[in-house]
Specification:
The chain has about 300 residues and is an alpha+beta fold. It is built from five helices and ten strands; from the N terminus they run H-E-E-H-E-E-E-H-E-E-H-E-E-E-H.
Length: about 300
């Protein structure tokens, strides 16, 4: 009887083992997962040895690093689109915790300082550039529009749907959603996070996940597309802009600011000069026309009248 029980138990384990072997990461399609024990699935970031916690969002720094690695799939790999709030994609240097290092450099020894969202906050310099601290992004402002639809959305319904989206899909605590304003078709969202406890997701990571979702390049697995529903009607997001505000103002030099001001002044002066020139030409034409008319009248007055005999 015991040998028969052993055979049955072995068959049960053999049938169950494939289910345990197919472990995946629910929050990162670039994670490489493998079963390292019964019921234990370990996921690591593609191209590195960093472990990935699939119960929450992966840090933006780790995501950007993974995006620079060609995907081992049977399709062509394309470079990801550059984000609108920085100089484009780059291969970042990350701390072991997943946060950006304060100083980032490229392969040509050009360096710059970034904030906790990985956005450049100084001018680019040489390898001797020093970044004393990693300045925290205090709040994020997002501006998006949706496609026109026959049915109008109520303001409270749109705010409720987006709050549920950020809480459920991106695991963001509701206290960090400071405001959602809706003026069809414009939607404005403000995320505020002065301090981040270790167990909470970072608003910079949330904004990056959201941006990838809107651009149809989701970090989530392919079967988890972004869908926003307002009372059963789809809210199709069309455009998205993200703006980052740090605890300290950026440190761009006055030279760059002066160049921008100089360009504005040049445009203003050129416009004023052209306007003055047009006014002078119009005034000259007017005076010329008036003089011709005045001379014609004087000739008619001075001309001798013909009297009949």
């Amino acid at each position: 009887m015991e040998p028969l029980f052993g055979v049955v138990l072995g068959l049960m384990l053999a049938v169950a083992s494939p289910a345990h072997d197919s472990c995946t990461c629910e929050t990162n399609k670039w994670a490489v997962c493998a079963q390292d024990g019964p019921g234990n699935c370990t996921c690591r970031l593609a191209g590195s040895d960093h472990p990935v916690d699939c119960s929450t969002l992966t840090s933006k720094c780790f995501l950007m690093k993974a995006e620079m690695m060609p995907l081992k799939e049977k399709r062509l790999w394309r470079p990801p689109q550059g984000v609108s709030d920085s100089d484009g994609m780059y291969n970042p240097d990350c701390e072991d915790s997943g946060v950006f290092k304060a100083r980032q450099c490229n392969q040509s020894s050009t360096c710059w300082c970034v904030n906790t969202a990985g956005v450049r906050r100084t001018e680019k310099g040489g390898s001797s550039l020093s970044c004393s601290e990693l300045v925290r992004t205090r709040w994020i402002y997002m501006e998006l529009t949706h496609k026109r639809s026959s049915s109008a959305f109520a303001v409270p319904d749109v705010a409720k749907a987006l709050r549920q989206l950020f809480e459920s899909r991106y695991k963001l605590h509701p206290k960090y959603i400071a405001a959602i304003k809706y003026d069809p078709p414009l939607i404005q969202i403000r995320l505020d996070q002065n301090k981040k406890p270790r167990w909470d997701v970072d608003i910079a990571d949330v904004a990056y996940y959201f941006e990838k979702d809107v651009n149809n390049d989701s970090v989530f697995p392919s079967n988890s597309r972004l869908t926003v529903s307002v009372n059963g009607d789809a809210l199709a997001i069309e455009k998205l802009g993200i703006y980052y505000v740090d605890e300290k103002p950026p440190e761009f030099s006055m030279r760059q600011l002066a160049a921008g001001i100089g360009a504005v002044v040049t445009v203003v002066l050129l416009t004023a000069g052209i306007g003055i020139a047009v006014l002078l030409v119009l005034r000259w034409l007017h005076r010329r026309t008036y003089k011709k008319f005045e001379c014609k009248e004087m000739r008619e007055i001075k001309a001798p009248s013909l009297e009949l005999p």
